[in-house]
Amino acid sequence: MGTSATGEGAALGTGASSGIGYELTKLFAAEGRDVVLVSRSEETLRSFGDELEDQYGVTGTVVPADLSEPGAAEAVYDAVESEGVTVHTLVNNAGFGVYGRFVETDRETETDLLRLKVVTVTHLTKLYATEMVDRGEGRILTVASVTGVAPVASAAVYSGVNHYLLGFSEALAEDFADENVTVTALCPGETNTGFMDQGNMTETAFTEDDMMDPATVARAGYEGLVDGERVVAPGLMNTLRVQLKRLLPRRLYVRVASDVWED
Predict the structure, then answer these.
(1) What are phi and psi of 164, to 5 degrees?
(2) What's the pLDDT tens digit per position in 151-208?
(3) Is 1 within 8 Å of 85 (Cβ atoms)?
(4) CB–CB of 88/9 below 8 Å?
(5) 8 Å CB contact between 132 and 182
(6) What CA–CA distances, in Å, run from 205 to 137, 145, 163, 212?
(7) 193 closest CA partner among 59, 17, 12
(8) Over the chain, what HEC string results?
(9) N or C: which end of the chain has fewer CB within 10 A?
(10) Is residue 56 among the annotated active site residues?
């Protein structure tokens, strides 16, 4: 089992086959930590796991799963337990966006998003946080979005989900403050990953030139987690979005945040 200066055990990452999750997993493997790779893409995960094993000498455990399905968290937990793997670091990263007027977006897609980013994240975190608190060590990184701070009118459910994730993470960070278990929320803005190709996100005003590189976002989240930061908003523009919330009236702030997304 992988070890490092930050404790013994594996890093489990959801949505590990691409984007920010892929880059985060490489960072954990580089510190000498075994990894558990979770996403729907089993073939891609196995190829990635082999790559990490060859490059870093760690063990890559593959758990294919659709985390928007009921009972997904418990199924992943049971699969990892059956492999005899202890999870030291949990990374809740899997996700997709939904963009468009609330009365026009697809209800089933939004239900999948709620299961994935609210129900599964909550259940998976409870399962692993319980172990972390019991043994007095662990780290949790949840990838939310800057929309958790700056809600977007044309992405109401997506914004609401990320408000939940941000509040959930900050509350847990305080709850576990004396348990040697750190909790960090990573709140990136628009990032150049396959994420933007889903849920009508290509209808936003953003182009590739406007987006952050996933490796840069992952590095910021990883360093924030290691340093015990509770909230990380990588990039100058996202930092400004967070700061503006303190300066503008709430209604105006939501309007300004929404205008940034509009075509």
Answers:
(1) -60, -50
(2) 888 889 999 999 999 999 999 999 999 999 999 999 987 755 665 555 454 454 444 5
(3) yes
(4) yes
(5) no
(6) 42, 17, 22, 15
(7) 17
(8) CCEECCEECEEEEECCCCHHHHHHHHHHHHCCCCEEEEECCHHHHHHHHHHHHHHHCCCEEEEECCCCCCCHHHHHHHHHHHCCCCEEEEEECCCCCCCCCCCCCCHHHHHHHHHHHHHHHHHHHHHHHHHHHHHCCEEEEEECCHHHCCCCHHHHHHHHHHHHHHHHHHHHHHHCCCCCEEEEEECCCCECCHHHHCCCHHHCCCCHHHCECHHHHHHHHHHHHHCCCCEECCCHHHHHHHHHHHHCCHHHHHHHHHHHHCC
(9) C
(10) no
Rg (CA), the chain: 18
Sketch the domain layout of the chain as residue ranges.
65-261
Please check whether the domain covering 65-261 is classified as CATH 3.40.50.12780: no
Structure tokens at 39: 């996403």
Q: What is the pLDDT of residues 52-92, one digit of tens each?
A: 999 999 999 999 999 999 999 999 999 999 999 999 999 99
Q: Which of 128, 158, 222, 253 is catalytic?
A: 158
Query: In this structure, are residues 239 and 135 in contact, taking their beta carbons and an 8 Å threshold?
Result: no
Q: Quick one: which of 89, 86, 94 has its CA closest to 66?
A: 94
